[in-house]
């Protein structure tokens, strides 16, 4: 990224000059030095990163207690190191005033980042900070040219290797870059010492680095096709950036080169809204695209079976490392042009060496998860409703006292997603088309127009078994009936779930290639971006590949581009 006139990315006032915020910085970031807090140490039994360090040593007591897990981790990390030719994983070599790298123990354990100063930033300002604050070495290595997603804490940028000006984009490596604010180990020890979001990792050369736990998990999944492949991590001041393989859809603007001068132009000196034009959105086919307003399934059973089987494979590969993805949702899995699945966003996971570590006394949910509500939680919410003030109280508290097992909750979320794309609507939902978006944010206040529908669905969950389409095979119906049982103890475990005959279908029959409704999806997406500078600008495009990666394309025409995107018929119940 070119320097804004008068602004140096390494200047402590760099962010302040654009945002009008009073922030101090080192290397362009906001850091304070403080002695390591004297409070508790990390509970290694709850931290994957810290347990992994011990499990990699076959002579450690932990490895002796968990030999199978130790072997899995050693085999997977060894394969990753070999495939990467032992290249360094954490690559930011920028130094603070004491000469320490930001990923070093000396920095992580003696500095903290008061992120409260950034809580009042607008979404545009937050995105801007996540560009300006990136490691200069990273920005020298790659060219950011778009955005492909945004989560609760991070922004996902699209980037490519920098090539020669005017040269073809073919062959240049493409990346998704997850940039987010990071809290040092100092902060984790002070506030969340039982579980940390940044953990230690020993490089092939023996150096100890602190990296985001999410990046470390992806490192162990390097050979898996069910997850993005991580390339490297850059920890620089207030930000961490995780580089990984992207899974994005092709752009229908096809060019053979990028106008670097356009990328190096700042639209305005003051308004951060230019970030939408500088880094326009690219389409990503996440699970929510499989749901439609008509409440009709967009995939047939065989196609849905492939998606479900690959999704379950991803859950298994995490479970082999004693990790469970707690944030399974329609936004956190991607589907490429050939119905291959990748699970993403593992910022919220649970690790445990024994069953007890997955047991919880309280049940937590957020307002986007009404469609994944469990019957036992619905019962507790009805109890909660009975004694509250209907004028001002909320119908969807984030926590209720309800003993639960994280593993069973994860499998429930998975089952609701499978039911959803096979039916076109959610379990216990009224199948007639209406305006309720169950995966949108729902705070549950009495005055909301969806409240009546929510209450009706909850009562249906409590009193009735889930209704399953008669058009689905008996094997499929058996699977859904079991996994969506209203009785917790009747639901299958992960091992039991994998034994259902339904999962053998797609591997033994040819699945029709291609996703449903790709052409309207891509065209509609770009039409929506016209106001953000997406049209009429020579942005790089990405063409389809069998591995789902994004690469630059020299496609000669829209007809040629769309020739590989034949629409699939929409399956409907008779």
From TrEMBL:
Protein name in UniProt: Protein kinase domain-containing protein
List of residues binding ATP: 178
Biased composition regions of type Polar residues, renumbered to the chain: 543-556
Disordered as annotated region, ranges: 529-558
Gene Ontology CC, one term: cytoplasm
Origin superkingdom: Eukaryota
Residue stretches making up the Protein kinase domain: 142-503
PANTHER family the record matches: KP78A-RELATED, MAP/MICROTUBULE AFFINITY-REGULATING KINASE
Any one GO MF annotation of this record: protein serine/threonine kinase activity
GO terms (BP aspect): intracellular signal transduction
ATP-binding found in the keyword field: yes
Family of this protein: Belongs to the protein kinase superfamily. CAMK Ser/Thr protein kinase family. NIM1 subfamily.
Keyword terms: ATP-binding, Kinase, Nucleotide-binding, Serine/threonine-protein kinase, Transferase
Source organism (scientific name): Penicillium bovifimosum
Upper classification of the organism: Eukaryota, Fungi, Dikarya, Ascomycota, Pezizomycotina
């Amino acid at each position: 990224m070119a320097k804004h006139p008068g602004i140096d990315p390494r200047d402590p006032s760099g962010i302040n000059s654009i945002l009008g915020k009073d922030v101090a910085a080192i290397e362009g970031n906001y850091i304070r030095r403080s002695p390591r807090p004297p409070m508790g140490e990390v509970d290694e039994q709850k931290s994957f990163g810290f347990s992994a360090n011990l499990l990699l040593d076959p002579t450690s007591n932990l490895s002796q207690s968990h030999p199978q897990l130790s072997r899995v981790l050693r085999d997977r990390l060894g394969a990753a190191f070999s495939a990467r030719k032992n290249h360094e994983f954490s690559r930011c070599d920028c130094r603070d005033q004491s000469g320490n790298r930001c990923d070093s123990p000396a920095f992580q354990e003696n500095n903290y980042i008061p992120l409260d100063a950034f809580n009042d930033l607008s979404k545009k300002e937050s995105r801007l900070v996540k560009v300006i604050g990136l490691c200069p070495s990273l920005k020298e290595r790659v060219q950011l040219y778009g955005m492909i997603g945004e989560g609760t804490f991070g922004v996902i940028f699209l980037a490519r290797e920098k090539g020669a000006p005017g040269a073809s984009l073919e062959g240049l490596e493409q990346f998704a870059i997850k940039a987010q604010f990071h809290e040092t180990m100092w902060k984790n020890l002070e506030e969340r010492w039982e579980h940390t979001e940044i953990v230690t990792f020993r490089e092939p050369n023996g150096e100890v680095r602190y990296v985001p736990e999410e990046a470390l998990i992806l490192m162990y999944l390097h050979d898996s096709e069910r997850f993005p492949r991580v390339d490297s991590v850059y920890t620089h001041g207030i930000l961490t950036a995780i580089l990984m393989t992207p899974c994005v859809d092709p752009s229908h603007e096809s060019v053979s080169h990028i106008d670097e001068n356009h990328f190096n132009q700042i639209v305005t000196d003051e308004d951060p809204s230019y970030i939408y034009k500088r880094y326009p959105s690219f389409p990503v086919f996440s699970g929510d695209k499989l749901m439609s307003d008509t409440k009709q399934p967009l995939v047939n059973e065989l196609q849905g079976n492939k998606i479900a089987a690959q999704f379950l494979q991803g859950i298994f590969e995490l479970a082999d490392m004693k990790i469970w993805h707690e944030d399974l949702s329609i936004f956190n899995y991607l589907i490429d042009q050939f119905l291959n699945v990748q699970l993403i966003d593992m910022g919220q996971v649970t690790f445990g060496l024994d069953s007890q570590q997955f047991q919880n006394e309280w049940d937590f949910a957020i307002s986007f998860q009404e469609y994944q509500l469990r019957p036992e939680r619905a019962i507790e919410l009805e109890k909660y409703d009975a004694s509250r003030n209907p004028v001002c109280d909320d119908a969807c508290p984030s926590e209720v006292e309800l003993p639960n097992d994280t593993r069973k909750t994860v499998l429930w979320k998975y089952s609701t997603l499978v039911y959803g794309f096979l039916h076109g609507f959610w379990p216990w939902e009224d199948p007639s088309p209406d305006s309720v978006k169950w995966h949108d944010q729902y705070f549950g206040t009495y005055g909301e127009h969806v409240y009546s529908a929510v209450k009706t669905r909850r009562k249906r969950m409590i009193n009735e078994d889930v209704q399953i389409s008669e058009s689905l095979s008996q094997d499929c119906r058996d699977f859904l009936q079991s996994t969506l049982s209203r009785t917790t103890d009747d639901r299958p475990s992960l091992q039991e779930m994998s034994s259902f005959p339904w999962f053998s279908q797609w591997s033994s029959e040819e699945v029709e290639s291609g996703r449903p409704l790709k052409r309207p999806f891509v065209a509609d997406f770009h039409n929506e971006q016209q106001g953000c500078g997406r049209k009429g600008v020579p942005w790089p495009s990405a063409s389809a590949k069998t591995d789902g990666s994004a690469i630059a394309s020299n496609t000669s025409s829209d007809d040629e581009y769309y020739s590989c995107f034949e629409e699939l018929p929409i399956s409907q119940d008779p």
